[in-house]
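A common beginner's mistake is to predict each chain separately and then try to dock the pieces by hand. The better habit, illustrated here, is to supply every component at once so that their relative placement is modeled jointly.
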Amino acid sequence: MEDKKYNIGTILTMKKQHPCGENKWEVVRVGADIKIKCLGCSHTVMIPRVEFNKKIKKIISLDGDKNE
Ligand SMILES: [Zn+2]
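With all components supplied together, the output reads:
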């Protein structure tokens, strides 16, 4: 399986919408687990990378060089 391209700061949509109604997430940590933050309610979730790759619907913005 090939990893999709994402970095910290990447904005993407998931196949499943968050209960708050938002479907856009920002990647906030990349490792063995991926941590993403809901742009609607700022809720964060950790997902194993393999599972995360399956759940991505679309990468919206590949802005991986932002430091926060
Ligand atoms: Zn949310």
